[in-house]
Structure prediction request, 489 residues.
Amino acid sequence: MKKLLTLCIALAGMTTLCSAQEPDNWTTQVTFFTPSVVRIYKTGPDNPDKKQSLSVTMQPGQVKSTVTVQNGAILYKSSELTVKVLGNDVTFMDRKGNVLLAENGYGHGNVAMTRPDYADIPVDQGFKLDADEPLYGIGIQQDGKMAKSGTYRRMIQGNTDDYCNIVQSIKGYGLFWDNYSPTTLGIEEGKFYFTSENAGCIDYYFIWGGDADGVIAGIRQLTGTVPMLPLWSYGFMQSRERYKSSAELTEVLDRYRSIGVPIDVMIQDWQYWGSNYLWNAMEFNAPEFSNPERWIKHIHDQNAKLMISIWSSFGPMTKPYRELEPKNLLIDIETWPQSGLTDWPPRRDYPSGVRPYDPYSKEARDIYWNHLTRLYNLDIDGWWMDSTEPDHMDFKETDLDLPTAMGPWRRVRNAFPLMAVGGVYDNQRAMENGNDKRVLILTRSVFAGQQRYGSNTWSGDVQSNWNSLRAQVPAGLNFALTGRNRGSA
Prediction:
């Protein structure tokens, strides 16, 4: 075992950035973002790239802190926390010296220091739990459990399971594991751990809030605050498994108005674009939805708003597909719908050719928005962003090694909804040119930081039965504990 080395830069009245050389040549960097929010970043000597977070928007603040060495350990102290680094392990204590959380000595995965594709190396980190310490959070799951004890999950975004790598403890702290690859979370008696399949570094944030509200405030300070949503979005939204014509939609609205039942929003779901080969064309190609200017005006004249379904994938006959495909800005996986025909079950001998786009590319996000402006310019009020996980049919492990604009898909898989939703939000706000029109997005998937994009999340295509309804209560509460906004089930 090599002798512990320390390298510290301490500036009076400033954040203290320090590194501890670990026995296996990995370096631990401790950075206070606030007195109660601290980043732990561990990496090896052969990793040349400094990771840029997709979720964290905050920069380290001017945090007054001190660094001392005591019994072979390095102590980093702010006004709220003490962080102790001893060998491979980090311990977090409150201002009175009470232990809040401690790593428990898990390694860094199967690290081969000479590999050129260093970022592809899986890493893991374990933490100790008190005997009576439950954990909450993670996101939306349909297991009906509030406390996450006994959890073992390989977290990949799905239709009815949405993952944010954030846990909260009853002790008043939160932990954000900042990694976007498929990640296994295990919570066992006396310990929990994260294992990420594509990393090259261990990168997480410890958030001391004192209680759940304090942790949520810290998460939002770290990853972005929630913009004010439009007032109408707090009202009654009417939806069904698609209205099959504009006449059907407006008749429902008119009926609500005629009987005096308050209603604020009508939602038009899929297939207003026509056939499956025109999937998500972002145009009203179906004859049942002709003359959209007229019926959208009718909705607004009835003092209601219109939200419409858009997807993260395109059919091969659409204009977006034909622009994205020559630029290699589509991800070549099987997604919904699998057939170009509307028969059920799907006729696989008539494949739809629908493919998700690559939201990790700014160019692709801009192309997406440029086509979405056809709907935006019709004065549509909100976006029902479906399949933002996205749907992944006939899943194969090798699909995760397909290229994206940010490297292998495995590296950034779980951030797909963050990038897709962010692309719509950022482009719409840019269109407003300082106007105060607020963005409203209701979407089916999520990752940490997405609350800053004016988005709510619904819990996917759950079933209409009592067990499903029962599961929505802990699902929604755990989701809220990760700092997110929760929409309808």
Q: What stands out?
A: The first strand starts at residue 5 and ends at 9.
